[in-house]
Write a structure and sequence with these properties.
The protein is of the alpha+beta class and 84 residues long. Helices cover 31% and strands 35% of the residues.
Length: 84
């Protein structure tokens, strides 16, 4: 996941994108997760919109890592299972 800065009609546009590899075509693809808006408009709301949204992207990455963390199951070999 990353902050994408593109140009639309000679204006900078921000969006949050996720890169992945297409299993069928074996090519890399980018999926837009969230469109944020034009940089000049966002500068009226945030002092430094690029730094602000980079922090948000890092938080989104952290949450994704936590949600996809491996799970651990422990089994007590001494415990008997009963039908029921």
């Amino acid at each position: 996941m990353h902050l994408k800065v593109g140009t639309i009609k000679s204006r900078k546009y921000l969006s949050i994108a996720h890169g992945y590899r297409d299993a069928e075509t074996k090519k890399s693809r980018t999926k837009t997760i969230k469109s944020l808006g034009y940089l000049d408009v966002l500068e009226k709301e945030f002092p430094d919109p690029i730094a602000h949204f980079k922090e948000i992207v890092e938080e989104m990455k952290r949450q994704t890592r936590e949600n996809n963390a491996p799970s651990t199951i422990s089994i007590d070999r001494g415990e008997l299972l009963t039908a029921g």
